[in-house]
Design a protein that fits this description.
Order of helices and strands: HEHEHEHEHHEHEHEHEEHEHHHHHHEE
Helix content: 25-40%
Largest sheet: 10 strands, mixed
Strand content: 15-25%
Number of helices: 16
Distance between the termini: 45 Å
Length: 425
């Protein structure tokens, strides 16, 4: 793979085609040395927004396909460009990626370029036959979403029986030799079910478990009562540390998502296996990129489209967008002056740089101040304070949209569950 590889350029979008994505976005005239030096290791590619579930916490509001999704032929052109950009891994998402008509052909093309291919799925509609076809095409790993025990999972996913189908998908992929992991969003509906859910994963022989906090985006922004409050981390993180130890005992890799952290007393428990032994700052536009089904490119697949789209593959090549789009340069250029609120004065400010851009921006429409931080919650608790989020404006109802929240600092109430006096590991 290399930048001199022959790639197919996608046809330029016409005025008549319309589309949901952000088009006609200007690029910088030239790339800089830092832009050319950086290359994404991982690309997360939304093949289609079509979905056979209707999850109440879905940030992309998946269900119907976008009005102008890339055709299979256009997707094959994107594959060439991913290879030219030296991407090593591609994670296919949706909606449901396997509902794209060219799903298997796209997987085969990625594999032919030596790119490792994974997929994240809700599991519905996946039987052994489809799992075998995916494996034969080159799918190396699959992450199946499980968001609680059966009643909770089915309620969050909007379909009775979806928990059962997710377990069936795990078994189907395992039967054809595909590496299977599980991913879970933690929220107020399922935070008390983590321990029994882990036992379910162990019984299902899942090899890894990625956990992340549900973020106030899309349908989740419509349900603020579903979201954790920053002070909930005081009780959640000690429990996650115990869960991680159980994962170690059962040889299940515990993988904390980008908004689990940061720099609290359990950081070495969660991330001790990583090269630095602690969390990294946001990797959007540094080590990752996201591609939406209509060809819109972002530094992170989860970031709100309207504010963070760098360009569209029907207008510019992937390397042009990667190197010259301002939205993808954000984390390459971000400094301490981009931080605000508690994060600006934090002891770990220079190392953390505000943590997960997606989490903070989804709350305030501005990155650089992330209240979902264990260190921060502990520091405030020592002062007898806590932070609480209130929604003050609803989301407009589009994929990857956000509401508006305000942050209230108030006395730490006597009924707030805390573990700040619990002995550290």
């Amino acid at each position: 793979m290399g930048n001199d590889a022959k790639v197919r350029r996608l046809p330029v979008i016409s005025e008549s085609r319309g589309g949901d994505g952000a088009h006609r976005l200007p690029l910088a005239a030239d790339s800089r040395p830092i832009d050319r030096a950086r290359r994404p290791r991982v690309a997360v590619w939304e093949l289609t927004l079509r979905c056979n579930l209707s999850c109440i916490h879905c940030g992309s509001r998946a269900g119907r396909p976008r009005s102008d999704e890339l055709s299979t032929e256009e997707c094959l052109g994107v594959v060439d460009q991913l290879a030219a950009l030296s991407v090593l891994e591609v994670s296919l998402i949706g909606g449901e990626a396997h509902l794209h008509p060219g799903f298997l052909e796209i997987v085969r093309a990625l594999t032919a370029h030596g790119i490792e291919v994974g997929m994240t799925t809700g599991g519905r509609g996946i039987d052994r036959e489809l799992a075998q076809k995916a494996a034969d095409a080159g799918i190396a790993s699959v992450s199946v979403s499980l968001d609680g025990l059966a009643p909770t999972h089915d309620g969050l996913r909007g379909l009775e029986g979806s928990f059962r189908e997710a377990l069936a998908a795990i078994a189907a992929f395992q039967s054809v030799g595909v590496h299977v992991a599980v991913n879970t969003q933690i929220n107020r509906a399922n935070q008390t079910e983590l321990e029994p859910l882990l036992e379910t994963l162990i019984e299902a022989r899942a090899r890894a478990w990625q956990v992340a906090l549900t973020v106030a985006m899309g349908r989740a922004a419509d349900r603020p009562e579903l979201l954790l409050q920053p002070y909930d981390l005081l009780a959640l993180f000690p429990r996650l540390a115990q869960v991680k130890r159980r994962c170690d005992e059962a040889s299940v890799l515990f993988w904390p998502g980008n908004n689990i952290g940061y720099f609290g007393p359990y950081e070495h428990v969660f991330r001790g296996q990583m090269p630095l032994g602690h969390c990294y700052s946001c990797g959007a536009g540094l080590s990752t990129l996201g591609i939406e089904a209509d060809g819109t490119v972002k530094g992170c697949p989860s970031l709100p489209t309207e504010a963070w789209a760098g360009g569209n593959l029907r207008e510019h090549s992937l390397v042009e967008i990667w190197e010259r789009a301002q939205a993808l340069r954000y984390t390459r250029d971000r400094g301490l002056d981009d931080l605000w609120g508690f994060c600006r004065s934090c002891y770990y400010a220079d190392e953390c740089r505000g943590g997960c851009t997606w989490t903070a921006f989804s709350l305030f429409g501005r990155a650089g101040n992330n209240p979902f931080c264990h260190h921060r919650a502990l520091e405030l608790a020592r002062r007898g304070q806590r932070e609480r989020l209130e929604r003050v404006a609803a989301a407009p109802g589009k994929p990857f949209d956000i509401a508006e929240f305000r942050l209230v600092v108030e006395p730490l109430s006597t009924d707030t569950p805390t573990s700040i006096h619990q002995s550290l590991p």
